[in-house]
Amino acid sequence: METKGPKGLIKSNGWSIGGPKIVAVGGGTGLSTLLRGLKAYTSNITAIVTVADDGGGSGILRNDLGMLPPGDIRNCILALANTEPIMESLMQYRFKEGSLRGQSFGNLFIAALNDICGSFDNAISEISNVLAVTGKVVPVTLENITLFAELDDGTVIKGESQIPIKQISSHKRIKRVYLEPSDCQAMPEALEAIREADAVIMGPGSLYTSLIPNFMVNGVSKALHETKAMKIYVCNMMTQQGETLGYKLSDHINAINDHAKHGIIEYVIVNSGQIPEDLALRYMDEYAKTVEIDWENIATRGIKLIEGNFVSIDKGYVRHDYNALSKCIFDLINH
After folding, report:
1. Judging by beta carbons within 10 Å of its beta carbon (0-12, 13-18, 19+), is residue 213 exposed, middle or buried?
2. Which DSSP letter does residue 276 get?
3. Contact criterion met (CB below 8 Å) for 322 and 37
4. How far apart are CA 331 and CA 335, in angstroms?
5. How far apart are CA 234 and CA 199, in angstroms?
6. Which of 81, 213, 42, 83 has its CA nearest to residue 139?
7. Which distant-in-sequence residues (6+ apart) come within 8 Å of 84 by Cβ?
């Protein structure tokens, strides 16, 4: 293997100029965190982002203006941006008073561009140019979708923001999630990126509200199943209240493959590092804990597990160390 360090993967490796073609699928803070690490190794990145969010500032703009939710898109754009720190601070700034309280400037900026440019995808393209984004950020679909969850007892929950709230109160597991309209079509750019990728990375992020909704959009699961790219799932480090309490690693894998209706995972990257005891106790207050690696339920599936210490503590929460995670991903890709 011949490299020149970060952003120095050269053509003798067999990659395109700029590094391997990487597709990252997901949403929420997990995807944007990962992207900050990936851009140190390649400029050929496509982030495919869920647009099922209906809460917070994004939900308000979605209801008021009839546009797609901009929040996850904004975070991914900023993660891949090459701009001054003040510009990132501006885009992430949230108003503290008045009718705009809680709304981010970046969301409003995207909303304005959506109107000026005439479409959400054109708005994303323009803001990406303004912020000198490495790679592309692509919404998984341009259709106005709603996420539903069906629980084990048959209860149906409508809306991405309501799923964890009502799941907690019901104490029932999520049986499945689905989208309406069920025939929503994927962005052609997203499908093309998956087909041409050297590696597709799924996660980390909320399993049922950030990751799996992407696979429910028509064309995505088929493209993932058929692509020759290396398919890597980055499992969350902690179980999540409202979605995955009690889940082991195999439960996460089963949920993805069951919804995709294909075996779309070849490699799983999972954390084996320890989190500080005081933080573990705080998570236990919400009945959350580190995801258990149940080897016996995975070994026969042909899925390869890669363990590592990816623990990072950010503002009292356990996050992936995006530098360590990205290094692990590119060591695997270059193996």
Report:
1. buried
2. P
3. yes
4. 6
5. 13
6. 213
7. none
Look at residues 38, 6, 76 and name the one whose alpha carbon lies nearest to residue 325.
Answer: 38
Vertex 327: Cα angle to 323 and 328 (nearest 5): 120
The class (CATH top level) of 1-50+187-335 is alpha beta
Q: 């647009």: which residue's tokens? A: 51
User: Environment class of residue 334 by beta-carbon count within 10 Å: exposed (0-12), middle (13-18) or buried (19+)?
Assistant: middle
CA distances for 197 relative to 6, 43, 81, 148, 200, angstroms = 19, 13, 21, 30, 7
Amino acid, res. 129: N
DSSP string, 255-275: HHHHHHTS---SEEEEE-PPP
Paired tokens of 307: 């363990």
37-56 burial string, b = 16+ CB within 10 Å, else e?
A: bbbbbbbbbbbbbbbbbbbb
Q: Where along the chain do its domains lie?
A: 1-50+187-335, 54-139
- Give 308: exposed, middle or buried? Use CB within 10 Å, 0-12, 13-18, 19+: middle
Q: 118 in helix, strand or coil?
A: coil
Digitized pLDDT (tens) for each residue of the chain, 335 residues in all: 333 334 444 444 577 788 999 999 999 999 999 999 999 999 999 999 999 999 999 999 999 999 999 999 999 999 999 988 999 999 999 999 999 999 999 999 999 999 999 999 999 999 999 999 999 999 999 999 999 999 999 999 999 999 999 999 999 999 999 999 999 999 999 999 999 999 999 999 999 999 999 999 999 999 999 999 999 999 999 999 999 999 999 999 999 999 999 999 999 999 999 999 999 999 999 899 999 999 888 876 789 999 999 999 988 889 999 999 999 999 999 98
Q: Residue 268 and residue 314: Cα distance in Å, rounded?
A: 24
Q: Letter for the amino acid at 188?
A: P
Q: Report which residue type is found at 151.
A: L
The model's pTM is: 0.94
- Quick one: which of 228, 202, 232 has its CA closest to 215? 202
